[in-house]
Design brief:
This protein is an alpha+beta fold and about 190 residues long. The protein has a domain at about 115-190: Sporulation related repeat (Alpha-Beta Plaits), CATH 3.30.70. It contains five helices and four strands, in the order αααβαββαβ. A four-stranded antiparallel sheet has the order 2-3-1-4. It starts with 11 loop residues before the first helix and ends with a strand.
Length: about 190
């Protein structure tokens, strides 16, 4: 026996129950009583905050009745702390006026003012010319000019990477610091060899 469920019509009892459920779902609305209670509580709390915002502990005697006015005791002078720091002194700068027209005389030995001569800086020494040329290129990227000199040593030919001449040792030191920031360490400063 086969039943046809697709064309079957619901019975009148089931139809009226489903209509009531659909009407109840559509008819749901905001509950008025709880909403009204929440609004009244919030309003009362807001009024309470507004009411207490005008009062404070520092009420003036004019606003309080005479029976509620309490005189505050006068504070006692504080005891002096033996570990307290003294007040900060005021700064007075007078050295500008004192040094305005001053001159300083220094006695310098005669040989001290003469320059020792030009300086050179050697950064590396290689057996192979290609390695010396590579170091020269790295130094050139730092904005300094280097030379490669071949010298005969007791163990064979060496290729030295040399910078200079520098007019002062300070200029040579400045170049060495520039190379150290680039990661080239071990440069030595000497008097220039002709």
């Amino acid at each position: 026996m086969s039943r046809d469920y697709a064309n079957k019509k619901p019975s009148p009892k089931k139809r009226s129950a489903s209509k009531k459920r659909g009407a109840a779902q559509q008819k749901r609305s905001i509950p008025y009583l709880p909403t009204l209670v929440v609004i009244l509580l919030l309003g009362g709390f807001g009024y309470f905050l507004w009411f207490i915002s005008g009062s404070s502990d520092d009420a003036t005697p004019e606003s309080a009745p005479a029976s509620q006015v309490v005189e505050k005791p006068t504070p006692k002078p504080a005891k002096k702390d033996p570990n307290a720091l003294p007040p900060k002194p005021t700064e007075q700068w007078t050295y500008l006026e004192e040094l305005e027209n001053k001159s300083i005389d220094i006695e310098v030995p005669e040989g001290a003012m003469k320059s020792q001569g030009p300086y050179q800086m050697q950064c590396a020494s290689f057996r192979k010319l290609a390695q010396a040329e590579e170091m020269k290129a790295v130094i050139a990227f730092q904005g300094l000019e280097a030379q490669v000199r071949a010298t005969q040593g007791t163990t064979g030919v060496w290729h030295k990477v040399i910078l200079g001449p520098f007019e002062s040792k300070r200029a040579a030191e400045r170049a060495r610091h520039k190379l150290q920031r680039a990661g080239i360490n071990g440069c030595q400063i000497w008097l220039w060899e002709y």
